[in-house]
Amino acid sequence: MGNTKFVYLTRERLVELEKELQGMKHNGRKEMARKIAEARAHGDLSENAEYDAAKEEQGLFELRISKMEGVLRRARIINSSQLPDGEVHILSKVKIKNIKTGKIFDYILVSPEEADFQQGKISITSPVGQGLMGKKPGNKVLVKAPAGLLEFEILNIE
């Protein structure tokens, strides 16, 4: 894994990922072994589609574990109190207004690993996240998004 870029996470998200990884390693691997054993019991392995599917699922599961371990190895904890006030940065809570529609959105800018649009957490690497980084309240931002060109005004930063 040649990618040495740091992954910035909150302490809470780091703990969540560590717990998830432990669960996958202990319970998940046991479940995978059980599925393979059950499929193996169905007879001739050369013509056993269930066995092949279980082995493929195990491979994908191990890949997920490996990727998560990579994220945790590169993880760096961020603390919003150490970041400058008055401009958008990772962990900023931003209130923006779409100039065209007048709709107001509240977002928290996070690392790609923490992004969850349903919870209002957008990645700093997303088009909107990139457009907002380093800006201040009152700034207008033009964002090239998949939906087209969007213009936002930054109303507030926490």
Description:
The protein is elongated and about 70 Å long. Helix 1 (11-40) packs antiparallel against helix 2 (49-74). The model has no long low-confidence stretch (mean pLDDT 88). It is of the alpha/beta class and 158 residues long. A hairpin with a 5-residue loop joins strand 3 and strand 4 (104-110). The chain folds into two domains: 7-77, Transcription elongation factor, GreA/GreB, N-terminal domain (Helix Hairpins, Orthogonal Bundle); 82-157, Chitinase A, domain 3, CATH 3.10.50.30. The chain has three helices and seven strands; from the N terminus they run E-H-H-E-E-E-E-H-E-E. The strands form two sheets. Strands 5-4-3-7-6 form a five-stranded mixed β-sheet. It has a two-stranded parallel ribbon with strand order 1-2. Helices cover 39% and strands 24% of the residues. The protein has helices spanning 11-40, 49-74, 127-132, and strands at residues 7-9, 75-77, 93-98, 104-110, 121-123, 140-145, 148-157.
List keywords for this structure.
single chain, 158 residues, alpha/beta, Helix Hairpins, Chitinase A, domain 3, 2 domains, five-stranded mixed beta sheet, two-stranded parallel ribbon, 39% helix, elongated
**What is the annotated CATH architecture of the largest domain?**
Roll
What general form does the structure show? elongated
The arrangement of helices and strands along the chain is EHHEEEEHEE
Give the tally of structural domains.
2
Q: Which bin fits the share of residues in helices? A: 25-40%
| Coarse structural class | alpha/beta
Oligomerization:
single chain
CATH domain class of the largest domain: Alpha Beta
Q: How many helix segments? A: 3
Main sheet specs? 5 strands, mixed
Radius of gyration over C-alpha positions, nearest whole angstrom: 22 Å
